[in-house]
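Notebook entry, structure prediction.
Reason for the run: the old model in the group folder had no record of what sequence produced it. Starting over properly, with the input documented here first.
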Amino acid sequence: MKQLYKEKHRPQFHFSPEEKWMNDPNGMVFFNDEYHLFYQYHPFGTTWGPMHWGHAVSKDLIHWEQLPIGLYPDEHGAIFSGSAVVDWNNTSGFFQDGPGLVAIYTSADNYPDSDRPRQRQSLAYSNDNGRTWIKYEGNPVLSDVNITDYRDPKVFWHDKTNKWVMVLATEQSVTIYTSANLKDWEFASEFGNKAGSHDGVWECPDLFQLPVDGDENIQKWVMFVSIGDNHDFKEGSRTQYFIGDFDGTTFVNENTDETILWMDHGRDNYAGVSWSDIPSKDGRRIYIGWMSNWRYANQVPTEEWRSAMTLPRELSLETSEAGVRLVQKVVSEIDSIRKGSEVYQDLTIQSSHPTFKMLSPLMEINMEFEKQTSTSFGIVLQSSEDEKTVIRYDVEIERLYVDRTEAGVNSFSESFAAVQEAALKMEDDRIKLQIFTDASSIEVIANDGKAVFTSLIFPNQPYEKVILFSNDGKTGVSSLKLTELASIWGK
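New structure, fully documented this time:
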């Protein structure tokens, strides 16, 4: 019997279920000092199957306790993705002694005597901090016989109109509904038929407000839309976002329909949505994504379990030359697993390749490159000459690359070996990188979150070395900090 959380490739500071299959995060809500993370879960296999809601809770977004399954399939079908809210004012009538949790999710089965999928929205509620759930006897509460892909409700309370708002993925658009009581929903508007990317079916929307450049007086709305895998496009499944205005009824995109804004430039951040009901005194908008890709999620080389979540990230909006853009940074609670560090300063790299021993396979690397005369520079994480991940910045065309073509095991999918890339401008002739390496992933946060890469890797041996390089000239490294991270799984 293998020891739990000690298996090969098992993430040590990312949430993964004890066993079996996991995909999209669901029902993320903060209540009574707990962060709830529900997730698409198949308890009987390590590939996608009849969906349940798995359940975990955390006090700090980093250390997780897995709880019993939250929602099981029923007469209305499997339990697809959805959200959860705190019904503070008992608008639903489900609660007698103060507020409680309401989950809004997609019930998925087939139309009677048919192979055609049927997707409808249902409710469940909890009086005991999400430990047990009662399904609403009036389920399903929302359906549309004309739309086949009709799923993933994300619900929030809209103060100005005093109503609940639902954003729902409806084939190639997001449909917005409103309700006074979570049970009776009215069509409000539809967004997106011509906007952004339509490379795959639209899924897992979210809609929320953020201040611009930290100014609470200037607020914009952000809509997330994930896009399912389409084999005509090399990236597989991925997530885009839109920025605009929302009046309680209609979302208006401030960019042209042709503008496509990607959440993440790595291959492995999908279906991410944000937590509901984080207290205003905290003030953060925090999200987490499923760290995989539908192109190969069922084939990755793990045996007892499949899939992990990204590190939770705080979202903000910043003005750039191109317009207002989303910025992501790992939540400050990551500090709880930081251990000892080694710090190096004022290095110059040219023909030599300074090599540093990794303190542990679980690492955070913070560094700042300074442009001098080179055409490109970067960092290699490697276990051997044959296995490495290369992060490279091209000075002339201002692009950052994360190359996992030799990162380790990749034979399970022709699509896995990949060079991931994004445009990234230098700031004062500098590029800052924050890199998190776990047993089977690497997350690269560049220039304080202006570009992010989330990427699975499956090295045969843990990475041991950090190598800096500079091509065709000199590069300065004003600082390099190597920090060991602790496993969240304890003894």
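Summary: Residues 210 and 283 are 10 Å apart (CA to CA).
The old model has been moved to the deprecated folder.
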